Amino acid sequence: MTEEIQYTPRELIAIVAGRLMVDGESVFVGTGLPLVGALLGKKLHAPNMLPLYECGGVDPEPRELPWSVACPWTYYKAPIILSMSSIFGHSRAGYADVGFLGGAQIDMYGNINATCIGPYDHPSVRLTGSGGANDMASLCQRLIFIGLHLPQRFPERVDYITTPGFLDGPGAREKAGLLGQGPWRVISHLGLMGYDEETRRMKLLQYHPGVTPELIQQFTGFELLIDKDVHETPKPTAEELRVLREEVDPNQIFCF
Amino acid sequence: MSDAANERLFDHQAAREWKLNKTRNKVDKRMDLTEAIATLVDDGDSIVETGFAYVRGPFGAYWEIGRQKKKDLLGIFTPGGLNNVWHEEGGVTGCHVAYVGVEMRGLISPFRRGVEAGTLKVYADWSHDGLALALRAAEQGVNYVACKSMLGSDIIKSNPYIKVTEDPWTGEPVCLVPAIYPDVAVIHVHHADKFGNSRIWGPTVNDTAIAVAARKVIVTCERIVDTDDIRTNPYQVIVPSYCVDAVCEVPFGAWPGDMPGMYYFDRRLQERVVREYWKTAEATKEFIEQFIYGTKNIYEMLQIAADLEGIHLLDYVKRLEELAFDATNYAPGFWGIGGGRDWKYEEYAKPLI
Q1: Mean pLDDT throughout A43-59?
Q2: Is residue A111 one of the residues assigned to a domain?
Q3: Could you say which of A96, A204, B299, B312 has the lowest number of CB atoms within 10 Å?
């Protein structure tokens, strides 16, 4: 008889994110939950994953979870610390496989808004602005988005495209001159999404334990395509939770 | 209005003229911070953020700018915006934005209020690399750079200073980013000599580019060191003396931000400031009255922060120092900072988080 494993939505998101990290790839890590997912993946199964941070840290050996992309842990024991234009330059040169970030809104084509809610000239809410998000999506080979799943956060069209996804559909990225393959995965507390090859629209790949595709659709502001192989996300394992809670985020900075 | 500052920002000829007139002589540029801000920061100047917002940001100087009630500044926020707290006091009336916020601690309310009410003019939004390249272009001596950021996004549509064109060789779309030349930069460093040669440990971010791009450069440092010290170890020098107009010794000049290897980010105070003091215009006013107008310098501000925690000032400072990383073997150990400590990070971090 096994004990029921308990976890919080943020822990689940972090674990699903960690599973997407691929050994031997370089990952340009954005702020928030990507910091957790990247470190967790590296500790669990991708020891040779190479993290890059926009403050300039390359491949650090942090003893603790960085709580910011400029946190000293992002360059602790780093073999080199680059300037900001260089870290993005190296990404453009082809040294960044994955960009990994969050944002306020994401639409069905994977465009992300971190600038404003409402019209740009008279916003009802003014947000932070791009930071490195636009550059990561423009320069990295593929992009992972992470965030909470609510209808207003998953609208049909974002109010402002801070960070380009597939823009308005097939061929638009190429026409605009953007590099990389564009959006690849979306992790939310309800499911894991990818993109349809033909239409470039977001589609559901996995629904998290206790959630149904119908429920996810209700929490999405546009029609979500469903992958033919859609399945339930494997539950977090005891080992995943142990590493997350004891080694990655023992102070519950992000996962509470 | 900050329109004139905004025009100067793109005027490479005027920026060059300005720098042709700066001294090349080895002049002792040491100055009191109050005097440096009074003489080098003018109303209506553009001022670019340095460091990485709350990492090696020149907070001591930002607060002094507020204390002296400088008006109509044009802020260039890449990243940061912590000094835009002044906008409700008339200090900052315009800005260029790459990022304004404190990551997971959220948005900076004075900025939000200003933009939403239309009292703080956003001249343009940029990406981080966009502004980094604009500054780098100034440093590298090119009029503009052609990059692959911001293409296809709404930044291109809303920012009138960047252009999309075809690469003349390949025909593919590129985004042209102009060089920018801010009026003022204050750069906080670990060590500087009296002429302005400045050395850091940790990330440079955009600071070398900024030092060359800006017309007036104030260096604030944790410690003034002998110029021989700099000359025997020039490898971490990020600012050459000829760019620098004033050198001010301001220990704890990056507090409540992080100074790599020396003292840690003051998380509790920053969270209190961002989540409480700056949340409303009234509370922001109180914060400014108490912390800025009510003090003479950053040390009196530190005293207020220590009093809020109910501990002695020296213990307060010591705690921040102990939280800084023991980077001895990897970094500034031979400068006599850092150190091989065996303290346990969690024990210190827990009460701060």
Answers
A1: 96
A2: yes
A3: B312
Residue numbers of B between 278 and 317 with CB closer than 8 Å to A: none
Active site residue A54: yes
Contact yes or no for A145/A108 (Cβ under 8 A): no
**Nearest neighbour of A176 by CB, restricted to B125, B152, B264:** B152
Burial of A34 per CB tally in 10 Å (0-12, 13-18, 19+): buried
pLDDT in tens, A215-252: 999 999 999 999 999 999 999 999 999 999 999 988 77
Does residue A92 fall inside a structural domain? Answer: yes
Determine the average pLDDT of the residues in A31-41.
94
Among A3, A11, A25, A54, the one annotated catalytic: A54
A222 belongs to a structural domain: yes
Question: Residues of B with CB below 8 A from A32's CB?
Answer: 103-104
pLDDT of residue A82: 96
Which residues of chain B lie closer than 8 angstroms to A134, CB-CB? Answer: 127-130, 149-150, 153, 155
- A vs B: CB pairs below 8 A: 188
Query: Which CATH architecture best describes the domain B1-143+179-353?
Result: 3-Layer(aba) Sandwich (3.40)
Residues constituting chain A? 256
Q: Is B322 exposed, middle or buried (0-12, 13-18, 19+ CB in 10 A)?
A: middle
Whole-Å CA distances, B148 to A29, A92, A240, B184, B207: 19, 8, 38, 28, 22
List the single residue in B with minimal CA-CA distance to A31: B103
A255 found inside a domain: no
User: For residues B151 and B200, what is the distance between their CA atoms, to the nearest angstrom?
Assistant: 34
User: Domain count of chain A?
Assistant: 1
**B residues 168-187 lying closer than 8 A (beta carbon) to A:** 172-174
Scanning B185-204 for CB atoms below 8 A from A yields 202-204
Tell me the two tokens of residue B154: 């709404």
CATH for A168: 3.40.1080.10
ipTM more than 0.90?
Answer: yes
> What would the pLDDT profile of A179-209 be if each residue is shown by its tens digit?
999 999 999 999 999 999 999 999 999 999 9
Q: Which residues of chain B have pLDDT under 70?
A: 1, 81, 104, 325-353
